[in-house]
Design a protein that fits this description.
The complex is a heterodimer of chains A (about 230) and B (about 110).
Chain A lengths: L7 H28 L4 H11 L2 H12 L4 H26 L3 H7 L5 H7 L8 H25 L14 H10 L6 H17 L7 H16 L2 H4 L8
Chain B lengths: L2 H24 L2 H32 E2 L2 E2 L3 H14 L4 H19 L1
Antiparallel strand pairs in B: 1-2
Helix pairs in contact in B: 3-4
Classes of the chains: A mainly alpha (about 230), B mainly alpha (about 110).
Chain lengths: ~230, ~110
Amino acid sequence: MIAYASNYSSGMRAAAPLAFAIGALGLAFGYLARAAGLSTMAAITMSATTFAGSPQFAAVSIFADGGTILAAIVAATLLSSRFTAMSATAAPSLGGPFWRRLGLSQFVVDETWAIAYTSDNRFDRRLLIGAGLTLYVVHVGSTAIGAVVGPLLGNVQALGVDAMSPALFVVLLKGRVASREARTAAAIAAGIALGTIRFVPPGVPILLAVAAVLGLTLSSPAILYGRDRRTDF
Amino acid sequence: MSRAWTLTLLTGSVTIALKGAGVLVTAYPTARRRASRLIEQITPVLLPTVLTALIVTQVFSAGRHLTLDARAAGLVAALLGTRLGLQPVLVLATAAAATAAVRLIRS
């Protein structure tokens, strides 16, 4: 891991290379949100309040596909649940009164968390703020541009914009399927999702996959972890 | 309120609440220990599960129909790109380009 000096501008500099990816995703999100039936203001509001790509893409794509709001929100919740763990590890280092830590925790997303978590296992508040502000401006700004410009372009489906959201999930998946249990979970999820698409409303296959894997993890971990790891639970 | 706004505000508030919850649990040591144990146990399998299910449904379905179209080329490109260690922005661009190329050929 690269070490950054503990100040706001280091956080900004660390976030700069990521800003391109975040910007491209923001443009795609703005476009897809409008195509799904959200107004420009709604698309911008979602980016400004959620400030996290994966739950936004999940919610909007399930909604666009004709899924229920409940299915969309549950999928977004599952994807956002990791931020609870991240902000819990960051919280003690955020400093100041409770309400300020609560405010700063809103800057926590995969990218900013990784930047602010220094190599000596310390969480740096200034790096979080520097990187968070930078990526927040890029995220909301690019969403606005995508939402305004997108509909003017007509059908940009030909450009493959709809392939960017699954590609983002592939990027996020990298490094998370190194263990046997993670690979088994992914395989079960793929099987259940593919097998149920035809029988349940859009969005629900994701919930069924999660229910099955969590059920297995908590009831018979041996299937996921292998027999030798059974005693861990 | 329209369905689109309901979706927008719920997605926003859920994420704000979940980020804030991390700060909240650290205020209580017992809750923090219990939460971190559960999170530790579930996170390694929860994320791959949700992400894989999202990828599969976004690439291979349209409504309630199983599909195999240009998006599959985008998925293959994204998998190859990540395997080669490309920057995230390039992975996204390659996936879009691959999907666009297949659509162009088939149109």
